[in-house]
Design brief:
The complex is a heterodimer of chains A (278) and B (384). By secondary structure, chain A is mainly α. Chain A starts with a helix and ends with a helix. Chain A is globular. Chain A has twelve helices and two strands. With 384 residues, chain B is an alpha/beta fold. Chain B folds into three domains: 38 residues, no CATH class; 156 residues, Periplasmic binding protein-like II (D-Maltodextrin-Binding Protein, domain 2); 159 residues, D-Maltodextrin-Binding Protein, domain 2, CATH 3.40.190.10. Chain B contains 20 helices and eleven strands. In chain B, helix 1 packs antiparallel against helix 2, helix 10 crosses helix 11 and helix 10 packs across helix 20. Chain B is globular. In chain B, 47% of the residues are buried. Classes of the chains: A mainly alpha (278), B alpha/beta (384). Chains A and B meet through helix 11 of A and helix 6, strand 8, helix 12 and helix 20 of B.
Chain lengths: 278, 384
Amino acid sequence: MITAALAAPAAIWLFLFLILPFCAMLVFAFGKRAPEGGYQAAFTLEQFANLPSRAAAFWNTLVLAPIGALLCLLVAYPVAYYLAVKAPPQRRMILVALIVVPFWTSLLVRTYAWMYILGSRGLPNLLDLVGIADVRMLNTPGAVLLGIVYGYLPLMIMPIYVSLEKLDLRLLDASADLGARPASTFFGVTVPLSMPGVITGVALVTILLLGEYLIPQLLGGGKVFFIGNALVDLFLQSRNWPFGSAIAVTMVAVVVIVLAVSMRIAWRFAGARRVDLV
Amino acid sequence: MTKHRTTPITAAELTAEFMRLKRGSVTRRHFLGVTGLGLAAAVAGGRTGSFVREAHAEDLGSQMSLATWPNYHDPASFEAFTAKTGVAIEVNVFGSNEEMLAKLQAGGTGWDLFVPTNYTISTYAKLGLIDPLDLAKLPNYSAASESVRFSNEGTVDGTTYAVPKNWGTTGMAANTSKLKTPITSWKDFFEVAQTEADGRAMVHDYQLTTIGNALVSLGHSFNSIDPAELSKAEELLIKVKPHLFAINSDYQPGMRAGDAWLTMCWTNDGAQLNRDIPEIAYTLGTDGGEIWSDFYAIPKSAANKPAGYALLDFLKTPENAVKEHVANGTPTTDSRVLALLPAELTSNKIVYPDEAALTVLEFGAAVTLTDPGRAEVMARFKSA
């Protein structure tokens, strides 16, 4: 009874703001664009038939989001490892705060700053001074990936840090005593034990990236297009709500499938290694 | 409207007013206004300012919202309005009329005044998204001194829905210190964008001008909705896209930083860029392009219409309008303002091109705003 009462607010919230809107989207996806834009009731599959025209945006999203998440992981892991294992405990909280504090500034402002760093008067200008001329950085897929790694880094560091913090350092000593080299201790003991954090971080960042709009818009110059950008265009420029809904529904389906499969693989891998250890 | 008194109220009058309020025969606002208690409360609440200003602020609220275009106003105008009325202005900047329409159709914009372009007014009126203007609330607007060529689309079936802000053209701005090829037509524009200006050219994030100018470069009308012609334009745009620096209607930052050397450009941005960086030249297409006028209109959904009218009247007041034109570099539609403009503006060929250069230009057509073909071509071009 008490459990039900406590769960009710969350359930009502989810119903009103997740389930209902999703149902509306589903209905819209089978409709038609009204003559002046918006939605007109109909039952047609023409929106879904038009999906291939946005293949490039789907492809960009499904390729750049996981690559961005993996780059994030490569940068975040050493930082989280240093924080949790190597950093002096009395300085740990300060270091964690230093990572979190930039998050208090709007992502928009921080991404704008990158526009100036990557623009002609920023890094390319410095490279020009040392003889590397005509480097273009802004409005390229590389710039978008850089912005993604920068923007999402704290979201990757934190879960990994939390799981590494619980790491029993005596296990590392035991591994060394049994003759393992540092590298095999790291890959055989530390990494498997931090897998819950890694999987959480990668899943969190990937899911958020699949809906990313701002970073490709600002650092991709409107040329590096994610599904998020295609959706904004369809709702806020073309006013083609049914097609936008069809894309959104498809994206939800794709994300669910991708996540279900990758999580299963990831957990099987992590679970297997953990059994080995015990 | 509540009358404000300049003499202190007597105890007997105060009591009488209080009884009227209690009986419900006057509103609370009237009571606070007539007794001066509203002012007292406002002053006690830490608001300063003259009595006159307070009298305005009570009717106009303390803030309003304006939807407009990039680099389009003198910030000093807004500060002067706020100083005069106590109403703070929140400015929202847009890159296309389609974006403004989409926001208004979706609802909940909160705009009290916005700046739509000529070809959109009839659709807004038809969809019931804008109010007919109550010209009695715009004492400083003078229909008689407005140029008919630029103001006629503000009137739909005899009803005035919008009054002109300024007119202008859509041409191209080129950094002549970087680009040696002369660029005089939209045909040149798209060729240079793929060659000498590779990675340095910008097009608007706006179907009307980006598709329109591509159509013009192929010898078609700026306003075409013919599927065969649109598909040719789409082909050209998708071919040019890998060579572009960006698709963005706010191109001044890119041009100023030197990231972009060539861009589709509106009169005002052309004048501002050329004023600050003389090597950036502004040219009209000899093969065609757009001539336009922007208007002020009040959304039906506006929450603070009194403030919308007040700002509109303020900006249409010739002395204030002059400052706007000097700051943003657009030509005026109002002969009263023209007479006040400094000669360096009226003799500026970017702002006031020769009439002969305008003859090939077309006004945007209403049909392009809602045509699904144009919308989809633009969306496909961007997501390609």
